[in-house]
Design a protein that fits this description.
Elements (H helix, E strand, L loop, with lengths): L6 H12 L5 E6 L6 H12 L4 E6 L37 H16 L3 E3 L15 H14 L1 H5 L5 E3 L7 H10 L24 H13 L12
Parallel strand pairs: 1-2, 3-4
Length: 225
């Protein structure tokens, strides 16, 4: 399980557990500006009683190329309708490819045939590595590139239970599964105290999701009482 500390990945953990899986969670300290997400990931792993949680260090700031891993301003807007079309500057080059590769290596050691990732292709920021074609291609590659895939009795499966859900549907489902979203953070540019900015693409999509779900937003936003 890829666990970021955000809303989607927390819901994904609960979905996997509801399906009967013991969850081995993997998070990454990759040079992101919003490292507070790792505190949320650790707290969520404990709250949801995952079997094991590991944090892997990768320095993607060596490459930059993203507002999350370089000294580039995170775009801010007042409304979801103001978000730019296409792939935004907050896209981290090849991030999910790298993360899934680590998950694949650990899965093979664990003799696990299932990897979960909370990607979403509806209410999302347009990242290419959140799309169905990418997930399908990675799954094919995984079964060609590993001993478990070539010699194992069961193929490895990449599970994306949130792929075709709106953010509101994800929040509704997670609430049904008992997720406390107050312990998650989605913001691309939180302040030094871990409060969400409220205006980046991820914050706007999160706000929209809670509003459409009719569920109070527990997020702590900067400048709010």
């Amino acid at each position: 399980m890829l666990l970021s500390g955000g809303l989607d990945s927390a819901t994904c953990v609960a979905e996997a557990q509801a399906a009967g899986f013991a969850v081995y969670a993997l998070s990454f300290r990759y040079g992101q500006r919003h490292s507070v997400e790792l505190d949320c990931a650790q707290a969520m792993a404990q709250s949801l009683k995952v079997a094991e949680h590991r944090i892997i260090d990768i320095d993607l700031r060596q490459f930059g190329g993203s507002a999350l891993t370089a000294d580039i301003d995170v775009p801010k807007h007042d409304d979801v309708g103001d978000m730019v079309e296409g792939i935004p500057i907050t896209y981290v080059p090849a991030r999910n490819t790298i993360f899934l590769s680590y998950a694949l290596a650990w899965a093979e050691v664990l003799e696990a045939q299932d990897i979960y990732i909370g990607v979403n292709a509806l209410d999302y920021s347009g990242y290419p590595d959140c799309r169905p074609a990418f997930i399908s291609a990675f799954q094919t590659m995984a079964n060609l590139a590993t001993q478990a895939g070539v010699e194992g009795e069961a193929p490895l499966t990449i599970h994306t239970p949130l792929l075709d859900m709106t953010k509101a549907q994800i929040i509704t489902r997670g609430t049904e599964l008992g997720i406390d979203y107050g312990g998650t953070i989605s913001c691309y540019d939180p302040d030094e105290n871990g409060a969400a900015c409220g205006h980046c693409d991820s914050c706007l999509l999160r706000k929209k999701g809670f509003a459409e779900a009719g569920i109070p937003d527990p997020t702590r936003y900067a400048g709010a009482p």
